[in-house]
Amino acid sequence: MALLLLVSTTSWKVEKHFCMGHLVDLAFFVDAQDCGMDLVSESSSETSIDKKSCCDDEVIAIQGQNDVKPSLNDIDVEQQQFLVAYSYSYLGLFTLKETREIPHKKYIPPKIVKDIQLLDDVFLI
User: Fold this and answer.
1) 19 lies in which domain range?
2) H or E element: which one contains 3?
3) Which uninterrupted H or E stretch holds 89?
4) For 4-40, how does the pLDDT look when each residue is reduced to its tens digit (9 = 90+)?
5) Residue 109 within any structural domain of the chain
6) So what's the pLDDT on residue 82?
7) What's the CA gap between 85 and 81, in Å, rounded?
8) Are 15 and 30 in contact (CB under 8 A)?
9) What is the pLDDT of residues 74-111, one digit of tens each?
10) How far apart (Å, rounded) are the C-alpha atoms in residues 2 and 8?
11) Contact present, 31 and 57 (Cβ < 8 Å)
12) Tell me, what's a Pfam family for it (predicted)?
C-alpha cells in the first residue's frame, strides 16, 4: 500500500534527445544532454536566416498528486471499535511483566560429607 502511495504521488519525467532521427540520450527525472550539434541562428546586418536544427527533444511528464489527505470521516462505528480493540491489544504486547521474587535464590545447600545412598546400600535400578 505504501509503494502504491509513493508511485501515485511522485511526479515522473522522461526526456529524450534525438539527433538526425536517432536517439542520443534518455534521461529520467532530469534534463537530457544534447549532442552539441544545435545550430545557432546567424544574424547579419543585411538578412536574418533561421536554420532548422537537426536535433529534436521529446518530453513525457506525468504530474503526481499533491492533495493526498487521509479522511477519517469515512470510518464507521464498527471500524472504530476494531481500531480501538486492535491498538489496545497491540500495545498490551509491550507491557512489562512483574518479576517474582524467588525465596531460595540466595540459599546455599549444605555440603555433602558422606554419600548416604552408598552407606545405606540403596541403589536405583
Assistant:
1) 2-37+48-62
2) helix 2-9
3) helix 77-91
4) 878 778 888 899 998 888 888 889 888 888 887 755 5
5) no
6) 93
7) 6
8) yes
9) 778 898 899 999 999 888 887 777 888 888 888 888 88
10) 10
11) no
12) DUF8199
State residue 107's pLDDT score: 84
For residue 94, being part of any structural domain is answered with no
Q: DSSP characters for 24-87? A: EEEEESSPPPP-S-PPPPEE-SS-EEPPPPSEEEEEEEEPPPS-----GGG--HHHHHHHHHHH
Q: Give the strand order in the sheet containing 12-19.
A: 22-28, 12-19, 55-62
Cell 511522485 found at? 10
Number of domain units in the chain: 1
If you search the block for the grid coordinates 471499535, which residue do you land on? 81
Does residue 87 sit within a domain? no
Written as one string, the DSSP assignment of 94-116 is GPPPPPPPPTTTTPPPPPP-S-H
Amino acid at 116: I
User: Which amino acid is it at 11?
Assistant: S
> Residue 26 forms beta bridges with which residues?
16
Could you tell me if residue 8 is inside a domain?
yes
